Amino acid sequence: QVQLVESGGGLVQPGGSLRLSCATSGISFSSATMGWHRQAPGKERAFVASITSGNVTIYADSMKGRFTISRDNAKSTVYLEMNSVKPEDTAVYYCGLFGGRAYWGQGTQVTVSS
Asked: 62: helix, coil or strand?
């Protein structure tokens, strides 16, 4: 019933920009905290950013000033705007919904390379 579907990943050059989207269904989106995590090759899944139902945002230190998380409750969708990307940002990015329990999307690949 609950579905989270990420989109917008792909290949981007260093210094470029990309916007990821996560469309949700089957759950109350507006009352939930949403977040993005990423997993690079050979590394554990790590926190990227989160946004509460009240639009309070938190970012990992390496993302501050470069990434922006936002949400559109009318569309039940959360976004991650990625700017000034670096090769170290290469990873699979996962969308998460956190309420009574956690739900995860399938992930979308972001590759930063020249």
From this structure: helix
User: Could you give the CA distance from residue 9 to residue 110 in angstroms, rounded to a whole number?
Assistant: 5
In the chain, beta strands by DSSP E: 3-7, 10-12, 18-25, 33-39, 46-51, 57-59, 67-72, 77-82, 91-98, 102-104, 108-112
The secondary structure of residue 73, as a DSSP letter, is T
Tokens of 74: 């009318």
The count of other CB atoms within 10 Å of the CB of residue 30 is 9
Look up residue 31 and give its two tokens. Answer: 């009352």
Q: Are residues 46 and 39 in contact, defined by beta-carbon separation less than 8 angstroms? A: yes
pLDDT tens readout for residues 56-88: 999 999 888 999 999 999 999 999 999 999 999
Contact 49, 95 (CB under 8 A): no
Distance in angstroms (rounded) separating the CA atoms of residues 58 and 47: 10
Going by their DSSP bridges, the two strands 57-59 and 108-112 should be labelled as unpaired
For the chain, what percent of residues have pLDDT higher than 90?
A: 93
